[in-house]
From TrEMBL:
InterPro entries named in the record: AAA+_ATPase, ABC_transporter-like_ATP-bd, ABC_transporter-like_CS, P-loop_NTPase
Pfam families: ABC_tran
Molecular function GO labels: ATP binding; ATP hydrolysis activity
The keyword Transport is annotated on this UniProt entry: yes
Family under the similarity heading: Belongs to the ABC transporter superfamily.
The organism of origin for this protein: Micromonospora lupini str. Lupac 08
Name of the protein: ABC transporter related
Origin superkingdom: Bacteria
Alphabetical keyword list: ATP-binding, Nucleotide-binding, Transport
Domain ABC transporter: 5-236
Coiled coil, from the record: none
Transmembrane segments: none
Length: 336
């Protein structure tokens, strides 16, 4: 599958006399294949927006290589810009314009056929409110308008920073359907989001960034499998057999945690071994279920951002160069 977006060893340091020096990107790598919906995940301050802004030529990197649609950027941005739609920061719209006026203006400026305006209004679910002024729109409706504006040129690659921001549950579901529809039509979608359940449902593949470096990437299923704990829940036909099963499994080197009506096993390579071990003792399994790990737990583990009772974690202190925090001491943070 060809890469629509490739980043190798991207580095960016922000320097400010007042705020000091900060490594936002520290040799970051990324690859997004054609036709995929790709999730870009990372804690606050981990470098997502810096990556996207650098790709779009809004920030100059300190090192590394980037390609969009097979062309080196930023040099080839004038060539590829027409094939990339992006919302990286909340766009500002004229409050007294309607969605249709706004999109017609943008279509005219971008030499997009006027008929495309109604197509994108329909796609993002704004058709019925398209004639009303933007200032009367809810946050979610403005978000839909932003997506519509990025879709106007029917881009090959659509980059969206937090597209579900401000959407209600129905809107989030519609956005999910829209992303999938776009991917099925051949468009590649790169979206950053903090709604990990949503990413797990929508995305084919993900990149997780922490402290300006890639800490996981690949198809969602593979990332989950790589970080699966190997935990298995076992129920027996007779609950009274659980102590005997615990003894047999422990003797065989399996770690067992007992519960009133089941056992939790960890460190099991092949669940079939458990069935065999127990059957040899005339103990019969009624359920053997691997415990699925979700993207949220993988994310919290890899970025070290799981909440710690009694501690208010601070945002990305660890990234300050020459400051009190040391790289890797903590992950990024969710706080203010
Ligand atoms: N213009 C800037 N000047 C100085 N530091 C900056 C600037 N922009 C970003 N940074 C710093 O670079 C780091 C990465 O920021 P970035 O906005 O890329 O993170 P992010 O992953 O998009 O975070 P969030 O999820 O909160 O949007 C942070 O420490 C941030 O404070």
């Amino acid at each position: 599958m060809p890469a629509v977006l490739e980043i190798e060893g991207l580095r960016k340091t922000y320097k400010s006399r007042r705020r000091g020096t900060r490594n936002a990107l520290d040799g970051f790598d990324m690859r997004v294949d054609a036709g995929q919906v790709h999730g870009f995940l990372g804690p606050n301050g981990s470098g997502k927006t810096t990556t996207l802004r650098t790709l779009l030529g809004l920030i100059r990197p300190d090192g590394g290589r980037m390609t969009l649609l097979g062309h080196e950027v930023p040099a080839a941005l004038p060539t590829v810009a027409g094939q990339v739609g992006a919302i990286v920061e909340s766009p500002q719209f004229f409050p007294h314009f309607s969605a249709r006026d706004t999109l017609s203006l943008l279509a005219g400026a971008g030499e997009v056929p006027a008929t495309r305006v109604d197509e994108v209004l329909e796609l993002v679910g704004l058709r019925d409110r398209a004639g009303e002024r933007v200032k009367t729109y809810s946050l979610g409706m403005k978000q839909r308008l932003a997506v519509a504006s990025a879709l106007l040129k029917n881009p090959k690659l659509l980059i969206l920073d937090e597209p579900a921001n401000g959407l209600d549950p129905g809107g989030i579901r519609e956005m999910r359907t829209l992303m999938r529809t776009l991917a099925e039509s051949g468009m590649t979608v790169l979206l950053s989001s903090h709604i990990l359940g949503e990413i797990q449902l929508i995305c084919d593949s993900v990149t997780i960034i922490s402290l300006g470096r890639r800490v996981a990437f690949g198809p969602v299923d593979e990332v989950l499998a790589q970080h699966s704990s190997g935990a298995v829940r076992v129920r027996l036909e007779a609950v009274s057999d659980l102590p005997a099963a615990t003894e047999a499994l422990t003797r065989a080197g399996v770690r067992v945690a007992g519960h009133p009506d089941h056992l939790m096993l960890t460190g099991v390579d092949k669940p079939a071994t458990v069935t065999r071990l127990l059957a040899e003792q005339n103990l019969y399994v009624s359920e053997l279920a691997p415990i699925a790990v979700d993207l949220e737990s993988v994310f919290l583990e890899l970025t070290a951002t799981a909440p710690v009772p009694g501690q208010a974690r601070q945002v990305d202190e660890s990234m300050k160069v020459g400051g009190t925090g040391q790289p890797g001491a903590t992950g990024g943070g969710w706080g203010a």
